[in-house]
Design brief:
The protein is α/β, with parallel strands linked by helices and about 280 residues long. Helix content is about 45%, strand content about 15%. Strands 1-9-8-7-6-5-2-3-4 form a nine-stranded mixed sheet, sandwiched between helices. The radius of gyration is 22 Å and the shape is elongated.
Length: about 280
Amino acid sequence: MRGLRAETKIAPPVSDSKRRDIIFQNILLIGCGKMGGALLEYWKRGDESFTIVDPFLESAPEGVSLVKDKDALGEKRFDVIIVAIKPQMIDDILPDYAPVLSDNGYVVSMAAGASVARISKAIGDAPVIRIMPNLPAFVGKATNGLVAGPGVTDDQRKHAHAMMERTGTVVEVDDEDQLDRVTAVAGSGPGYVFELARAYVAAAEGIGFSHEQARALVLGTLEGTIAMAIAEDDKSLEDLRNSVTSKGGTTAAGLDALNGDGAVSRKFEQTLEAAYKRAVELR
């Protein structure tokens, strides 16, 4: 992928001492679908209090308040509003919520493709942070992209980072174009990994294993290998690959068949370019 600047990096964790200095307490979640619900399970492990407004939700997680519409909020105001509705609903729904955001509050949006400028305009020119979580949020292993819009304070950014850190890894980027690139790599990434795992399992079945055996072998290998790569982060992935590859051995033979001609590398480049292009089209 061309165009992603080299300085984009995983932001450092927010220390507990810094978290204690952050005063954002009352949080309103507008909408609570599957992804919002998955993130909320980890968000609510912090010190904040959460309220959901969703006309279709039957019940809220333990410790979370649920109302069916804005009128049920009364005069209550919130330090953070999280936008978890579909992008096509933003212009009709968000303006009604501008009065419930506190003077020093900010907005977090997980509405895919909806720009910071659009969200901010819809909710009274409030500061907006966009996030892009991915599917492993359901097991507390999300890889989250985060971009802070104009007017976001350092405390607001730190608070959003700390919240997302409860759900997994946080990668802060400099602009919304980079967030589209995060979508191509991480947002859509679980789909690529599931497809690779599916093909790997099918190939294992093809050399004589049952489906159950093949699935256990493949998923166990993937899990252990990724854990090792994370644990030995001082080593490059190339070095780790070479450490298991003996000249003339079975791994060398398999790797030559897999990517000796560079086909897999080219296919990944094409995959990310296609996903990024589609993300741009959906802006």
